[in-house]
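Dear support,

I submitted the protein below through the web form. The confirmation email said the job was done, but the results page showed an empty box. After a refresh the structure appeared. I'm attaching both so you can tell me whether what I see now is the final result or a partial one.
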Amino acid sequence: MSHTCPQCGELIPDAASPCPRCARRALSFHEAETVLGLSVVGLAVLFAITGFAVSLYHAKYESLGREWQARGEADLKAEKALKAVVDFRTALVYARDSDADQLSLARALRAANRTNEAKAYLTSLLERDPGNAEVNLELGRLAAREGNTEDALRYYHGAMYDDWGGRDPAEARRAVRLELYQYLIKRNERPLAEAELVAMAALLPPDPVLYTQVGQLFLKLDDYSRAAHEFEGAVRFGGGQAALAASGEAEFLLGDYRQARSYLARALREKPEDTRLSRMLDDADRVLNADPYEPGLGPEERNHRVVRAFQQAVTRLGECGVLGTGTVQPGTAAAPTASGSAALGEEARSLQPSVNRAALRRNPALMTTIMNFVFRVEQVPAGECGPPDPLDQALAAIAQEHGSADR
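What the results page shows now:
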């Protein structure tokens, strides 16, 4: 028996059957829903594939940039500056905005002596990041190459106090200051170089190796006092035999032979085979044993040393050919051409009768006259009298320490 569909009004021939029209509509709706869902899934898959491809592309792009950057570093290290320039330029194709690659390119350009190009990159980098220590350091090196000391000082000092990232800032500053010091020494800017060294010394950590290194630099500047101070610091912080030896040498050069002897003796106890230290210790002992001004001496020992010094001075004048027969004996130096040695010979003859312990006991002030004479003899150039023997060298050292014997 037929009836009408209550939803669409379609006549349904069989009451037990569903509406044909509604059935077709439902099927169409489900088909469309299925197609839409599949389309969405397909799009998602396509997006994923595209994203993966883009990611692979960028990864490959970055990988190529890193590869060229590594090549550049290797070529720069191998001193192939021109190849490094090409490498870093290629790296920048893959990482155009990389400050690190631009800095590396600037270094390569500097190494290739393409100063203007290097400076252009570095100036641009500094404008973007004024606190970049490495950029300041590179600009300082360029200024140093050009001999522009004013700019070198400005940029090197900027590098010392700028941001070094993960690197130990104290260590970085020492390295930069040392580089600046070496540049100033090459430029013969000694006062500026010494100022940098003093600043470095003031900031040293308790490291005996660093104290010794700085002390050696002061020693090269003939600044024996500061060198001795640094070496004493090295000894204080456990520097061992090397620090003791360096302290002994500095004190010896400074003219403090008693302190030098103490350090040298301790250093030799640890390294007795060091012949250089042994000779220096012998020299220090010789000075200490010949010096009539050594604190704590009794009158008899002091007078003995004065007489001995006079006798050595007379022997020295004999080598000059101005005493005795007045002629040069075989094996001695030629007679002096200057009149100074001859005048000293006459002075020696006039002093000779009064140079004895009894006369010195009666007249202690005579010591000043005698030692002034000795000091003048020992300051006669070796070219006039030949090389001095060890006791002459000791008396010359005493003369240098005490200057005039007037006291």
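Response: this is the final, complete result; the empty box was a page-load delay. DSSP finds 19 helices and two strands in the chain.
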